[in-house]
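Protocol step 4 of 6: structure prediction from sequence.
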Amino acid sequence: MEEILNLVSIHREMIYFVALSIFVGVEVIGSVPTVLHTPLMSGANAIHGVVIVGAIYVMLNVDTENTLALILGFLAVLLGTLNVVGGFVVTDRMLEMFKKK
């Protein structure tokens, strides 16, 4: 228990920052009108493209003997790619609903 309290006291500013980010994120997302959810989703998918590039960069700089890091990097690239592709497919389907026939 003492180790946990010591860890919290060392990283107090980081914990405050994460908690404040959660509250601000919930407030921002909660106040977005429903019409703007599709562009917001597209922006979030573009951000995940940056995550993929970062995961590839980290994998290139990892020692080839470190199989755990390579596996985690591969999973990061795979799941990030699935998120980007799936998000853009959903966004495209949502935008199709607004087109005139």
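Step 5 (inspection) to follow. Residues 1-31 form one domain.
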